[in-house]
Amino acid sequence: MGPLLVLTSVRLARADSERDEVAPLDKQPVSAWDHIELSMGFIAGQRRYTSTPWALSSGSGLPGTSAIVDPLKRAPYDNVPMFGVRYDARLVVSYVRMTAGFDMPFAATGLGAGDGRYSIGGVDRDVSVRSIHAKDLRFGIGGEYPIGPVAPYVDLVGAIHWTSTTLAIDGQSHDYDATTFAFSLRGGARLHVRKWFFATASGEVGLVGDLRWGAELSVGFAFM
Q: 32 and 74 in contact (C-beta within 8 Å)?
C-alpha cells in the first residue's frame, strides 16, 4: 500500500508540474527580476523634415540660398509616414532601464506629392522627389514598475538620425544627407508570457527633432 501511495503522489506532482509548465502566463512576478533583454519588432510613425539641415552629397545642388521656394521644405517632407523594423538590447536593474537599439524605418508616402515646377535661384525648374531613407541609433534611460507578469515603463530616448533624400531637378539626380539628434518620450508595457519570453507594445512622442510620433510592437527574450 505504501509504494502505491508514493507512486500516486509522484504522478500527481508530475501532473501539477506539467500544468505549471504549459500555463499561458507565468504566475510569478517575473517582470521584477534584474535581467538583460534582446528584442525585435515593427515600428510605425510620422516624421517632419522641413527643418532638417540638409547638405548636398552628390549632384550640382540647388542654386541660390535665397530661393523663393525650397522643395526640401514642402510636401512630402512636412509629413512622412514611416514603417520599419527595430532591434533593441536592454539592461534592467532595480527597475531602472538602460536601452541601446537600432531602427530601420522606410518612407511610405506618395513621393510625388512634392513634384512640380519651382522657382529656384530665379530659374524655373522641374523638381521631383525620388526617395527618402533613414537609419536611427537610439539610447534610452527610463524606469518601470512591475505588476506580476506585466511591467509598465517610461523611457527618455535620445537618437542619432541619419537621413538621406534624392531629388530630380530638371532630370538630374541630387542627393542630400543630414545627421541630426532627436529626443522623444516613450511609454508602454512588457508582458512576460514566460520568464524568458515577452511581448511589448509602446507609443512615442517627439520632443526635439524630426520625430512626431511613433509606435512599436515587439517580442524578445530575457535572461541574466
A: no
Instruction: Give the integer Cα–Cα distance in Å for 196 and 99.
Output: 18
What is each CA distance from 76 to 29, 62, 184, in whole angstroms?
A: 47, 18, 22
β-partners of residue 90 are 37, 99
Q: Count Cβ atoms within 10 A of the Cβ of residue 115 and give its class: 0-12 exposed, 13-18 middle, 19 or more buried.
A: middle
What is the pTM (predicted TM-score) of this model? 0.78
Measure the CA–CA gap between 72 and 176, rounded to whole angstroms: 10
pLDDT value at residue 12: 46
Answer whether 124's CB lies under 8 Å from 117's CB.
yes
8 Å CB contact between 106 and 82: yes
CA angle 29, 32, 38 (to 5 degrees): 110
Indicate the CATH number of 24-223 among 2.40.50.140, 3.50.50.60, 2.40.160.20, 3.40.50.80: 2.40.160.20
